[in-house]
Amino acid sequence: MFARRLFLVLCVAAGALAGPARAQSQAPDALIKQVSTEVLDAVRADKSIKAGDLQKIIALVDAKVMPYVDFQRMTSSAVGRYWRQATPEQQKRLQDEFKILLVRTYSGALAQVKDQTVQLKPMRGGADDPEVVVKTEIRGQGEPVQLDYRLEKTPNGWKIYDVNVLGVWLVENYRNSFAQEIGANGIDGLISKLAERNKNASTTASKS
To answer: CA angle, corner 170, sides to 78 and 185, nearest 5?
Structure first.
């Protein structure tokens, strides 16, 4: 449940960046508030997604969300000091497998969208800063979920590179588990672990 909530709102926030020109012209908090609401409305109105059409959900996430997440920075930060030890080919494979992992997690989270709304908290810093933290609260059924987003300004607009939910930063959380796997089995061991996890998820989805 924790992971689903985390990725649900990361998905919403990333979806909020679905227009580079708008991402450059709007303040990051205003952008997230405006477009994330539109994304939630669109998901709620899509009968196929609500029915659990995984292929359609994956296509939606891959096209509309993933281009607005800084995967290289997110992956290198999650791998930590071992990133520099990886060969270019290993770095590419890590990034590819990490992306598949996130796409499938986002896709599962999208199917959980019901009546959530996004409430912004006051933002420190300004839209001219190269990096900002946007704090939000997701309200719906049950207790509100507190989330913080780290965004960076790039030539292509604002991009998310980390998320904090209930005091846990996404990248930091993966860094700990990735470091354990690399320490035990090396970088190739982590790649194999991620590939196996993604393969199992794909097999399970095809049988459902």
So the answer is: 35
User: What predicted TM-score, i.e. pTM, was given to this entire model?
Assistant: 0.74
Closest among 113, 114, 111, 115 to 52, alpha carbons compared: 111
201: containing domain = 2-207
Instruction: Compute, in degrees rounded to 10, the torsion defined by CA atoms 6, 12, 17, 22.
Output: -140
Q: What is the pLDDT of residue 7?
A: 52
148 sits in the region (left: phi over 0; alpha: psi -120 to 50; else beta) called beta
Mean per-residue pLDDT, 37-46: 73
CATH classification of the domain holding 57: 3.10.450.710
Residue 155: φ, ψ to 5°: -60, -20
Predicted pLDDT at 2: 47
Nearest to 140 by CA among 43, 3, 38, 9: 9
Q: How far is CA 128 from the centre of its chain?
A: 23
Overall number of domains in the chain: 1
Name the residue with higher pLDDT: 101 or 81: 81
CA angle 151-155-161, nearest 5°? 25
Q: How far apart are CA 173 and CA 152, in angstroms?
A: 20
**Which tokens go with 183?**
């320490």
> Higher confidence at residue 17 or residue 38?
38
